[in-house]
Design a protein that fits this description.
10 helices; 13 strands; Aminopeptidase; alpha+beta; about 35% helix; single chain; globular; 2 domains
């Protein structure tokens, strides 16, 4: 029986669970925590997202879903792009399932006028692997290589006093403000200004991405979605003497699975670098995560291999490499 590619109804919990099961099985061999818990996905996938239009597809052999894909279409900027991630049951690999799914989403992307497709592949740290070969065979080039690192929070606790001492008084002219998901009104405009420079300030390699504009209204909509699905953005801001937001960092933890967290964005305005703000913000956000969710055991992060400064900060905190992320790109 030939494979059929079908849309997955985001409001059909049975279909959504089948889609999730394929991804869970496909990522089970990877280190760390590569796939969200079902309760996390159930809330996030079914909720409206003000940033993206999302399509989920399944590859069906009869009634059984054997492969799946997520297509994300940006709504605000980078309107020439979309991103896709493909998953295939381990028992059904090398049968053309992934190729069928890639072809299906490429056709969708082209129909939407999107000309740049981006995806992700995962290989052992510093190595190549099947994901890279699969991507290359379908015209996807490696635009950037990033290291995935994991931190055991018990290790962070043991290092914390030395980290605080290393920062010393370098950031004394700045005030560190922390919050859970909802940015204080007095900082939201300046926080949005900082977020808007992200793509200009992080190493992108050959990724075809442009800066964004984060108005207070857009930020509030994003925050409210997080509140609605139980995702906590445990954030720290560095406030400069003139009252502007000079830097930020956050740890993201879901109520439905508080055992594990992820670093979201860490960014320091170039005008305020040289004050150890990156480390100060990381300490503050990790402290807030531990205070809010003492049961959280680990946090992971991802940074470009060429980002020497942030990689050094993360290594000092106790992060250790577990995998390499390949940022993949294809121009139609």
């Amino acid at each position: 029986m030939p494979l059929e590619i079908q849309d997955v109804d985001l409001q059909d919990e049975t279909a959504l669970r089948a889609w999730w099961e394929v991804g869970s099985a496909a990522t089970a061999e990877r280190p760390g925590t590569p796939w969200p818990a079902w309760e996390v996905s159930r809330s996030a996938l079914a909720a409206d997202n003000p940033e993206y239009d999302m399509t989920l597809l399944g590859a069906f052999d009869g009634d059984a879903m054997v492969g799946s894909v997520m297509l994300l279409v940006p709504l605000h900027e980078n309107l020439h792009t979309c991103s896709l991630n493909v998953y295939v049951l381990p028992s059904r690999r090398r049968e053309g399932v992934g190729s069928r799914l890639v072809a299906a989403v490429e056709e969708r992307a082209a129909s939407l006028g999107r000309t740049t497709l981006q995806s992700e592949g995962y290989v052992p740290s510093g190595e190549s692997g099947p994901a890279e070969l699969f991507a290359a065979a379908r015209g996807y080039e490696v635009a950037s290589r990033e290291g995935i690192k994991e931190l055991t929070l018990s290790d962070y606790r043991s290092r914390r006093s030395d980290l605080v001492a290393a920062v010393a008084d370098a950031a004394d002219d700045y005030t560190i403000v922390t919050f859970d998901t909802v940015c204080p009104d007095e900082h939201i405009a300046s926080f949005g200004r900082l977020l808007g420079m992200l793509m200009s300030e992080i190493p992108l390699g050959d990724l075809d991405l442009e800066d964004s504009e984060w108005t207070p209204e857009r930020l509030r909509a994003s925050e409210q979605r997080c509140v609605g699905i139980g995702r906590h953005i445990l954030a720290a801001l560095a406030i400069a003497p003139d009252g502007s937001v000079a830097g930020s960092s956050d740890v993201r933890i879901n109520e439905a699975d508080p055992s594990h967290g992820q670093i979201g964005i860490t960014l320091v305005d170039p005008a305020h670098r040289g004050h150890r703000l990156g480390m100060s913000l990381k300490i503050a956000s990790h402290d807030l995560a531990l205070a809010t969710y003492p049961e959280c055991a680990s946090v992971d992060t991802c940074n470009a291999e060429v980002n020497e400064h942030m990689n050094a900060v993360n290594e000092a905190l106790g992060y250790r490499s577990i995998e390499t992320l390949l940022e993949l790109q294809k121009r139609l």
